Amino acid sequence: MQVDALFYQLFQSFPAIFFDLLGQPNVDVSNYEFTSPEVKQPTFRFDGVLKPKTNSPTDILYFIEIQFQKRAKFYTRLFAEINLYFNQYDPPYEDWYAVVIFKNRNTEVAAPLRYQEVMERRVLRVYLDDIEALAQQSVGVGLVQLLAITSKRKLGERAQRLIARASQTLSGGDALSREEAVELVQTIVLYRFPNLSREELEAMLGLADLKHTKVYQELQQEVRAEALQEGERKAKVESVSRMLTRDFNVREMAELLDLELSVVTDAAISSLVRSELNVKQIAQRLGLETSQVMPKAIRALLSEHKSEEQIARQLGVTLAAVRRMTQPKAQKLETN
């Protein structure tokens, strides 16, 4: 999951967090909806737009951009997006602001002088390493700040404190329950450290059991889906040997099986090697050059623990050609 998507999830679920970031906790968030519209010619997409639900000209429209890395011509592109948005959607609102959330001040690129006036009047900048006071007042701001923490130890400590404070009421009357806080914290921590096991995550967050949380259950579903896909992929690869009996070439098999050409080629060569065909015969059967077949065929026979002499005889190649494939590996092992 990209960091932009995490911000989208936070602001869409809890728009009060956005106004907490701006130090405006008294805004009526029920009057806003969070979207991510696309503007065309050329195609741009905002990280987010907080748009009033009413069409009153006195309402304020907010454009939101997330910047965790330096980006050349960022402000030029931002103002181009905003102008295209106004041209395409023609919203009724007279007042608007561009809110840019930076990881820190080092990720900001200076705006050209031609934008000085609009920068002063219309751009609000938030630096996540400068909002400690706000983070102490708002659980939501604390969640946003987690996204900028790179230290596992510090992230764990902050996450535990946020979960403990989760009964706090957010501005605008939105209550962030402990369950919601745990799920959001989990999402952020797993984004930062995707290889954490459940036990490591539990220890990091100081929680007893995460098996029943929404985030962990979704993760389990993703793993199961990947396992099913992997099983399907394995079955497809195994079907290559059967398809070879029907005179399909590798490109046709790759297209029919929806597999990468290299995967099908490797499987086909391995299958034909087991049929004891030589390099020229395999190349002719698959419509490949012998130079494409020989390295893969040698590797396939090496995996079956054939000797160099046996490989050379079966493939109809010189012993020297086989040794060019095997000796560099042996030399590397000796060096190590």
Automatic annotation (TrEMBL):
<protein>
    <recommendedName>
        <fullName>Flagellar assembly protein H</fullName>
    </recommendedName>
</protein>
<dbReference type="InterPro" id="IPR022573">
    <property type="entry name" value="DUF2887"/>
</dbReference>
<dbReference type="InterPro" id="IPR010106">
    <property type="entry name" value="RpnA"/>
</dbReference>
<dbReference type="Pfam" id="PF11103">
    <property type="entry name" value="DUF2887"/>
</dbReference>
